[in-house]
Amino acid sequence: MKKALITGITGQDGSYLAELLLAKGYEVHGMIRRSSSFNTDRIDHLYRDPHEAGVRLFLHYGDLNDASSINKLLRDIRPDEIYNLGAQSHVRVSFDVPEYTGEVDAMGAVRILEGIREAGISPKFYQASSSELYGKVVETPQKETTPFYPRSPYACAKAYAFYITLNYRESYGMFACNGILFNHESPRRGETFVTRKITRAAGRIKAGLQERLYLGNLDAKRDWGFAGDYVEAMWLMLQQDQPDDYVVATGETYSVRLFAEKVFARLGMPLEWRGSGVNEQGVDANTGKVLIEIDPRYFRPAEVDLLLGDPSKAKARLGWQPKTDFERLVAMMTDADLALAEREKRANG
Ligand code: NDP
Ligand code: GDR
């Protein structure tokens, strides 16, 4: 039985990847952080008491900021595959905690790579690299050969992690891959990322639990896919004969504005835009109610205006294809958050 270690198992991608690996018969080990509140919601459905027979999911306390915990896990588990998904993953927040973001997102990767050498093991290693590396537009669509131009402390930290992964592959012959994943979303997406923030608020507005949604830059464009599809690409990268780096994307891009329009229209609240700049408002075309306002607090000191990926290499070499298109993603997230809001309403009496 193959053993995998996942950092960031409690996150969106970690939960889908754990599901995929368990379904493939792996023994899955996840690093989790000590927290004063529950942080295992996304994997609770997979967890069984380790005292029971046949359990294949094991959780261990650790932290990417703590090399001793990483080294111990590597020595004890001796995994065949490591997926480094753990990160301070919020771009806007990285401007507030730049140094911490560097510690976790950049140094965290080298702590694992060095830990692998020290433990004398040779697992395959996956690094969660990001389309944020492309930052300011140099060319579109963005592919493996497009130069990086990071635009946030998050992206700068991820650039270090990208290159240190490449460097350990070249220096020590490690099977180490970078997946350069474009934005991927799901009903499990963190609630402060823009897609989920929109679907969550729209569901609550529809259920009468909230009046209005405050957003930042409506004109940013992203290549949005479904997280469940993207974790398959991670796994495929580690099943190849040779390690390499791959762009994982849909090849389509849409604005935040359009995403919001689709979501609100699906819930019977078609949007009309009035005003401009920080005074722009999204109004319900049927009732005239203001549903969306701009709050400059959500603007970023430096913005990434346009991401559009070219997944040709992943398609050709990995045989990977995104299965979920934009319309289906919008529908999946909107419907899940409407159901959640309705449950919340019932629970509130
Ligand atoms: P999430 O924010 O949902 O999950 C991040 C995970 O990292 C959580 O499990 C979190 O734990 C864990 N974590 C945070 N800090 C530490 C730390 N110091 N030590 C150990 N674990 C830590 O991110 P996603 O699932 O969306 O993304 C997974 C990875 O892929 C991240 O590295 C992200 O930067 C990258 N990425 C994501 C993309 C996307 O569109 N989703 C696109 C490209 C790259 P806790 O639950 O306790 O907070
Ligand atoms: P991103 O995702 O920064 O691309 O990083 P996010 O959903 O946070 O932002 C996407 C775009 O929407 C604009 N925006 C807002 N964003 C947020 N969060 N909140 C708002 O209110 C809002 N209004 C407009 C942003 O300015 C931005 O242009 C995600 C993360 O998952 C990273 O970890 C990952 O590496 C990249 O995707 C690829």
SSE diagram, text form:
Elements: E1 3-7, H1 12-23, E2 27-32, E3 57-61, H2 67-77, E4 81-84, H3 91-94, H4 98-119, E5 124-130, H5 153-172, E6 176-181, E7 184-185, H6 194-206, E8 213-215, E9 221-222, E10 225-226, H7 227-237, E11 245-248, E12 254-255, H8 256-266, E13 271-274, E14 281-284, E15 290-294, H9 312-318, H10 326-347
Helix pairs in contact: 1-7, 2-4, 4-5, 6-8, 6-10, 8-10
Bound molecules: NADPH dihydro-nicotinamide-adenine-dinucleotide phosphate (NDP) and guanosine-5'-diphosphate-rhamnose.
Shape: globular
Which ligands does the model contain, each kind named once? NADPH dihydro-nicotinamide-adenine-dinucleotide phosphate, guanosine-5'-diphosphate-rhamnose
Could you report the average pLDDT, rounded to the nearest whole number? 98
CATH superfamily of the largest domain: NAD(P)-binding Rossmann-like Domain
- What is the first-to-last residue Cα distance? 48 Å
Structural class: alpha/beta
Per DSSP E runs of 2 or more residues, the count of β-strands stands at: 15
Please give the CATH architecture of the largest domain. Answer: 3-Layer(aba) Sandwich
Question: Number of helical segments?
Answer: 10
CATH class of the largest domain: Alpha Beta
Name the poorly predicted regions. Answer: none
The tally of domains stands at 2
Strand content: 15-25%
Helix content: 25-40%
Enzyme class: lyase
Pfam families: GDP_Man_Dehyd (PF16363)
InterPro entries: GDP_Man_deHydtase, NAD(P)-bd_dom, NAD(P)-bd_dom_sf
Keywords: Lyase, NADP
